Amino acid sequence: MLSPSRCVYRALGRSLSAASRANNVLVLQNASGLSVCRQLVYRSPQLCEFPTSANIFHIRFFKTSAVCRDEVVTVKTPAFAESVTEGDVRWEKAVGDSVTEDEVVCEIETDKTSVQVPAPTAGVIEELLVPDGGRVEGGTPLFKLRKGGVVAKATTSPAQEAPAVAAAAPPTFVTHPAAASTAMPQVPPVPPQPAQAKPVSAVKPTVAAPAPPFPEAGGRRENRVKMNRMRLRIAQRLKEAQNTCAMLTTFNEVDMSNIQEMRKTHKDAFLKKHNTKLGFMSAFVKAAAHALTDQPAVNAVIDDTTKEIIYRDYVDISVAVATPKGLVVPVIRNVEAMNFADIENAINALGEKARKNELAVEDMDGGTFTISNGGVFGSLFGTPIINPPQSAILGMHGIFDRPVAINGQVEIRPMMYVALTYDHRLVDGREAVTFLRKIKAVVEDPRVLLLDM
């Protein structure tokens, strides 16, 4: 049995031999894979009798069998982290959509973050194996992708293809006077294939139109939106914290005059040397690391299983970041060994990953203390909730000019309220107040860090 390539060359040789015996031969080549010659157009020495009795050209088509058909691959759910077992699928593409390599096909929303599933190669979505909103585990088949496929809106017949090739041919190839004004023969059109019905999973979910801000006169509307897994997990953890921890909050206020002056004086040189901006967050993160080292009980945690207290000699601070899908807390690790520039670079890197929805579960595991900055939204005062299994959380608020007493005189200073919520089962009031005053001292005068006071 001959291979497809040998069959192609044998058929091509026979056709060229027949064409060499005819006069005024015109060969149009279209090389694509093994299809060396797509059309061979020549004038026959004897005219064929057609109903129109017109002198026309014969067209002979050569079709070859594909040696390698388009490969269909099945893309599976990537492996989750140890603390994540399942997630919900949200499709970005539907059946028949063309995708490029590394283009996101769907997102899997887990309890802690969203995992993007890209296309391994360019192709066409062949089938969706999981409905939108379906629950999957690691290794679950998600969709089938046809490599290198092209979405065809309608079947192209040879009759439509032949005139296009003839029109694209240079005029120097025309050797018969009547050829320029004679139309190509119409080949009977190939009946179009019936449209393949798409499964329910291929239909993209329809986004409901947002409700008007104020109901129309006499109208009362309700819009129900399903809670995503991240929001459900956040709600569950916050309620667990309320039910488990004996939470208590202590407050203080920080004079931001010195830190603002330091930032104003050194921000240009800091940006030039470290290629990052100097903000207030690095001062509070470093102050928290200094205070956690001084008060190890705030950095500790209760193991409810063994009824033991776990003290740590390292500081991993979680920084709360608000995203459209919910609150995430990426972790800055080993803060006790960092300077201001290291902290600013780490915060910027984690913030960029959060904006691009690229945070992994490993980026949010293992924090020993949390800082929440509600001041970016204009918060004046508030009591944060502990992020379990941690034992305390620091709440920052907005900076506002207020009259304060300085050396017996009333002055206008930029002031910030800070709050520390702690688990009273582990942390006593003395330790909590001392911890918060230590943060106040470091932020108001960063020279305390140099003197290790």
UniProtKB/TrEMBL annotation:
GO terms for molecular function: dihydrolipoyllysine-residue succinyltransferase activity. Pfam families: 2-oxoacid_dh, Biotin_lipoyl. The keyword Transit peptide applies. It is found in: Mitochondrion matrix; Nucleus. It comes from the Eukaryota. GO terms for cellular component: mitochondrial matrix; nucleus; oxoglutarate dehydrogenase complex. Pathway: Amino-acid degradation; L-lysine degradation via saccharopine pathway; glutaryl-CoA from L-lysine: step 6/6. Residues 72-146 form the Lipoyl-binding domain. InterPro entries: 2-oxoA_DH_lipoyl-BS, 2-oxoacid_dehydrogenase, 2-oxoacid_DH_actylTfrase, Biotin_lipoyl, CAT-like_dom_sf, Single_hybrid_motif, SucB. Its cofactor is (R)-lipoate. Its main location: mitochondrion. Transmembrane segments: none annotated. Keywords: Acyltransferase, Lipoyl, Mitochondrion, Nucleus, Transferase, Transit peptide, Tricarboxylic acid cycle. Belongs to the 2-oxoacid dehydrogenase family. This is Dihydrolipoyllysine-residue succinyltransferase component of 2-oxoglutarate dehydrogenase complex, mitochondrial. The lineage of its organism: Eukaryota, Metazoa, Chordata, Craniata, Vertebrata.
